Each structure stands twice: as structure tokens, then as C-alpha cells.
């Protein structure tokens, strides 16, 4: 499967209807009105049109970069930049991770107060809100995505000891004990 198409598919599933409307508005000079009106929800059809019009391609992403910056989706811009640098889609699940076990324990044991924990870790409200909107009825996934966002933001500075410290600061001592084990 083409990594670029995989990337576009992941972008399309993470776009809200208002973001898609904004993208369509920004492209009205490049794409006919009827074609844009045919795209109703999800960005898949939108990206297909961009590909057909040759506005974007695997080796031609500047237009897409500008569009994503215009709608203030820095998360997607960074994924696109990473694709350009590495030539493939970042797949965190494919790589072994020393944080996997502690994060699994946290996801299984932290309930509704997960936002308090994520705030203690320093993740912004905007990122938290985006994650909630992307996973509206799944607390476990909201927490998992938030922890991944924290880990991505911190990079090599993301330490299990920081997770434990944040858990204890939120009075989640039982979960902190389980993580330590």
C-alpha cells in the first residue's frame, strides 16, 4: 500500500466537518465549485480531487502543507514533515517502546480523571480537546492518545518517572504503584 495514500487517509479521518469546509474554501480558485460541493464529509474525496488535479503528489506536498497550516492543524503538518523527511508514514505501533507497559497500565486503571493527569504532564488544552473530539465515546482511547501525544511532545525526555510523579500529584497512588511494579 502506498504510504502517501495511507497518510492522506489518516488526515481525512481526523478532519472535522468545519476543517473540511475551510479546506474547500481555500481551494476554490484551484478546483471547480461543483467538484468541491460533491465532497460532503470526510476528507477522502477532497484529497482524491487534489491528487487528480495534480495539486499534491508523493513528491509535491507544499500545497498540502500550506492548506494544513491555514486551518491550524500543526499536528498534521508535523506528520507531513515527518513523511517528507523519512519517506514513510510514522507508525508508532510498529516500533518497540519502553513506555508501552506503563502506558497500558495507566490506560487500564485511570478513569474519568484522565484529563487531570494529562494536564499535569503538560499537554495543552487544545490537544486534549482535539483528542476528545476524535474519540468522543471512548475514554480509554482518549487517554491512550493523550499519553502518546505527551510522549511525542517530550521525545527522549518522556520518562516513566515523570508519569509516576504526575500520577502521585493527582493522588492516583494505586496506579502509580502498579506502574512502578
Automatic annotation (TrEMBL):
Any one GO molecular-function label of the UniProt entry:
protein-macromolecule adaptor activity
Query: Which superkingdom is the protein from?
Result: Eukaryota
Q: Which Pfam families match?
A: Death, DED
Keywords, A to Z, come to:
Apoptosis, Cytoplasm, Immunity, Innate immunity, Phosphoprotein
The subcellular localization recorded is:
Cytoplasm
Q: How does it assemble?
A: Can self-associate. Component of the AIM2 PANoptosome complex, a multiprotein complex that drives inflammatory cell death (PANoptosis). Component of the death-induced signaling complex (DISC) composed of cell surface receptor FAS/CD95 or TNFRSF1A, adapter protein FADD and the CASP8 protease; recruitment of CASP8 to the complex is required for processing of CASP8 into the p18 and p10 subunits. Interacts (via death domain) with FAS (via death domain).
For this entry, the protein name equals: FAS-associated death domain protein
Which species does this protein come from? Cariama cristata
Upper lineage ranks? Eukaryota, Metazoa, Chordata, Craniata, Vertebrata
Amino acid at each position: 500500500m502506498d504510504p502517501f495514500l495511507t497518510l492522506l487517509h489518516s488526515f481525512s479521518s481526523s478532519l472535522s466537518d468545519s476543517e473540511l469546509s475551510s479546506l474547500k474554501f481555500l481551494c476554490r480558485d484551484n478546483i471547480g465549485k461543483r467538484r468541491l460541493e460533491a465532497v460532503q464529509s470526510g476528507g477522502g474525496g477532497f484529497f482524491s480531487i487534489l491528487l487528480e488535479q495534480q495539486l499534491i503528489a508523493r513528491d509535491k506536498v507544499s500545497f498540502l502543507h500550506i492548506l494544513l497550516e491555514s486551518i491550524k492543524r500543526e499536528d498534521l503538518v508535523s506528520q507531513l514533515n515527518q513523511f517528507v523527511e523519512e519517506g514513510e508514514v510514522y507508525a508508532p505501533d510498529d516500533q518497540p517502546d519502553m513506555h508501552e507497559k506503563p502506558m497500558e497500565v495507566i490506560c487500564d486503571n485511570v478513569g474519568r480523571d484522565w484529563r487531570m493527569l494529562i494536564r499535569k504532564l503538560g499537554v495543552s488544552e487544545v490537544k486534549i480537546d482535539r483528542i476528545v473530539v476524535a474519540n468522543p465515546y471512548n475514554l480509554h482511547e482518549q487517554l491512550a492518545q493523550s499519553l502518546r501525544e505527551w510522549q511525542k511532545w517530550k521525545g527522549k525526555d518522556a520518562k516513566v518517572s515523570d508519569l509516576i510523579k504526575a500520577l502521585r500529584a493527582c493522588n492516583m497512588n494505586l496506579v502509580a504503584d502498579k506502574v512502578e511494579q
